[in-house]
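The aim of this short unit is practical: by the end, you should be able to scan a pair of folded records and say something sensible about each. We start with the first protein, listed as its amino acid sequence and then its structure tokens.
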Amino acid sequence: MDQMPATINSREAMISDYRCFFCFARAFGQLIENENISDENKKSFTREMAKVYTEICDNFSAPVFSRELHAILKQYTHNIDPYKLVKHQSNDLVLNMYSDFKKKVEESGDPFDMALRLAIAGNIIDFGISRDFDLQETIDKVLHTDFAIDQSSELKQALLQAKTVLYLGDNAGEIVFDKLFIETMAHANLYYAVRGGPVINDVTIEDALYVGMDKVSHIISNGYDAPSTIVEHCSLEFNDVFDRADTIISKGHGNLEGLLGKTEKEVYYLLMVKCDVIADTLGVKKGDFVVKKNHSI
């Protein structure tokens, strides 16, 4: 049974909350500890972080803040992709389990639902939120839990009718589950969009090719290195596909933060809710699983 909150929080048009700053502080605190930079530079970066937040706090956007902070950090570390190793490890981790998951989908009474649930479970692989997660525990939970918002039947029908589908990728490792879901839906004209450059553990062209996404979709870059989809900053190629797409599938927190309440397109948000801010925005609980249509309210 579909479960929908009575109303969507007024923050839907701009997900902005003071709690985001402290989440970023924890994440970047851990990141700078792992980088080979001096204590003085760590202090300097912290001052710059506070300055950027002060400048944008009245019009806060988590993806924009994240992009700015990563750009600043790269000036200290000269490391354009600090998550390169963990992205590779995440992709290999799920690729090594791929055949087992594919068999589980094929033997399921409802392959679409099974592949969808696995794709959402993969959203737990998010180093922008936390490095402490249990993938198998999340998979077990998603297979035995009702979605807090469930518009998957509408998504399935939309995919049958759509001439063009755009799937917005999120994290490395998770992309392997996306591939399995895309194989299962078997749409003839589906585009898989990745980030325009390395940011956190988000997927890039390199990740998509590594897991064989080109075998099941048309891969495109969104042309922008924010951990999100911010349409006005994306490339002309991406915007052309975005405009033409009949149905858009948006994976994860970052894409939701960039699009929710900001487009009239038919967007289905697929994610595991990993923070209280997003939970409050959607009217659900942290840890819930969601399939939400953009025009559901």
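Turning to the second protein, read its sequence before its tokens, just as you did above.
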Amino acid sequence: MEFEGKAVVVVGGTSGINRGIAEAFAAGGARVAVASRSEQKVADTVAALQAAGAAEAHGAAFDVRDAGAVVEGLAGFHRAMGDFDVLVSGAAGNFPALTAEMSVNAFRTVVEIDLMGTVHVMKAAHGFLRKPGASIVNISAPQAYLPYEGQAHVCAAKAGVDQITRTLALEWGREGVRINSVVPGFIEGTEGADRLAPTEEAKAGVISDIPLGRLGRAEDVAGMCLFLASEMGAYVSGQVIAVDGALYQRGSGRLGSMIGEMLRGAKG
């Protein structure tokens, strides 16, 4: 999997899993650009990418809910790096809330970040993609196909993201562009994992549900993205691929109820 000199853009790439993906491409010698809302996080990540071995590192701060800002930001990356070989769209928002107690605006906020943000990134990037040859990876979530209590907003938004992946694989495949979704499992060190399993006891309970017997790592997800972006993945498109240690073969299981139990416990 050689990425020397390839132009890679990671939207939402300044923290967590997405930053791990950006750093993995940097270590492969790619020219990497990252974007998020925080100018400080962008600056910190650009420095980290340079240290990781990126041929070039670029950054921009914008909000994926603002279609015009996304166009402007990606156009800047295109001026700096030329056509994109790889695009990873990973910006996301989430908070636990039972549906009956969630405001319409709160629901809309997650839809605007996760779903409309993906739409904005896809549409803005289309004219900047290498054709043929570009690979797009949307970072999805198990909520796209598994119901979780306290996550109706995320379930609805991420289901839409995966349908965008499938539809654009049909529409853009004619131009030689591949697009897939990657669904991370329970990844250690992420905000979501720390929120759901804040204690060693809770973490041990989660691990007991994972058939492979360990939490995931950011590099596990990054490895799948590297594969999908490489020549080894050249005939893979329109797929939703979980990187989860087989956890989701059990359905939402304990994780599917933990959020609801936590929210009801907080009320009590």
